[in-house]
Fold Apoptosis-inducing factor 2.
Amino acid sequence: MQRIRKSVLFLKLVGYGVRTYYNSAVRRTISAKLAAWLASAPNPNITDADITNIVIVGAAFSGYYAARILATSLPRNGLYRIIVVEPNSHFNFTWVFPRFCVVEGHEHKAFIPYSAEFFSQGPKDLVSWVRDRVETVKKECVVLRSGNEIRYDYLIIATGSTVPGGLPSRAGGEDREGGIERLRAMQARIKNANHLVVAGGGAAGVEVATDAKDHYPDKSVTLVHSRQALMHRFSSGLQAGTADAMTRLGVEVILGEKVDPGSADGNFITLSSGRKIKCDCFINCTGQKPASGVIAELAPHTLTESGHIRVKPTLQIDDDSLPNVYVAGDVAGAHARNPNSRIAARQGEIAADNIVLAIRGKAPSRTYKEEWGDEVIKLTLGLDRSITQFWDGTEELLFPNKDTDLALMCDGAWTALGAKPFEDTGVYTGWAETPTASLKSHSTTPSKMGNA
Ligand SMILES: Cc1cc2nc3c(=O)[nH]c(=O)nc-3n(C[C@H](O)[C@H](O)[C@H](O)COP(=O)(O)OP(=O)(O)OC[C@H]3O[C@@H](n4cnc5c(N)ncnc54)[C@H](O)[C@@H]3O)c2cc1C
């Protein structure tokens, strides 16, 4: 019976893969080619006020992908413009941060240059790039840290999540060079320590603890987690595999306790029970939160207790007065059990498709519902092995892997994002500059929102 159930799951997985490939590769390529074929020459007399601005806040898995979908799908008559606002100099490839906090020599690979190649199926001049941070979203414009405002007719908020402490979960800054330096500093801290304490038994904590112990078997590594099992939000098989890895490597696990970070004195650190443990290097992998502050002024009622932005199934923000505002990725309160890059990209795709529908005068009809296959994670458990888990909340498929690439095959991510591994091409400036008129107050250029 168990075998039959697993076989059915495996077939579901294959179906999911084929569907995803068809949607993302085949269907999109055909529609991009069709759009290019049908395109008429843009009217040279178009002014900024005639142009519909689609502003995307944040260019990681969700926002960057949404920009790509829009670049291939929007009418090519010169009346549409995609404006991406992103403070980071490079795409931060989060998956490898825990590994590169420990292993030296690969840190530059975590910062993938944004590239025009990623949009190469679309026409030139459709995507403008603004290296800045959105401070707040208003009804018809976003206000940037620089003080500029960009008017929008449609908006995608794809700001993801953030942690106050930066590494190992986030780079802790906006430029590549600073990120590389911080990774090297973390490697040195770990190398020079004897008693490492890692807080947080989610993926980042588990990966950094197992890598550190595998790389430096003579150091003591303790992983402290407030729940009763590591990886508690995942399937029981993955939890068991994680616990086995801790035993195999000799990582001490303390469950049901929290660490008081302020208590670290260079020799000891104190847990919530009052227990003191040896610690000369504390690594905090807790505290990740949705980066939803940009909407706090305009629509505070859409913020959930966890800090996510509540959305409708179409990924429009859950506020009927803002039908042209979409939210996608980690920041969206879209009921994803374990948010990940695949879900973020799929939500970016859905938001982009719905904007194209609205522009064509149709009601946004694509909806996000968690699918079997969304819930995938490849969890490293030391330098040479990992488990890939597929799970639908009840049934799981686990694939234990032997890994040989210390850089976790991140060259594949570079290629998928249109970059040549591992050639840094610097800070991306985009195909087209943002016209100054779009940077003025929105009141001069009224919104041309379609039937949203
Ligand atoms: C350590 C770690 C390992 C992970 N490993 C995996 C894995 O193996 N597989 C997997 O599928 N997922 C993994 N994840 C999860 C995955 O990284 C996230 O689900 C994914 O990055 C979410 O993408 P996103 O586009 O929603 O947001 P994010 O990746 O958080 O990106 C948000 C973007 O928005 C920008 N931004 C934020 N605020 C603003 C603003 N105010 N104005 C303008 N821009 C802004 C940021 O600079 C950033 O570029 C991991 C996460 C971590 C932390």
Residues 441-446 have pLDDT under 50 and may be disordered. The CA atoms of residues 21 and 144 lie 36 Å apart.
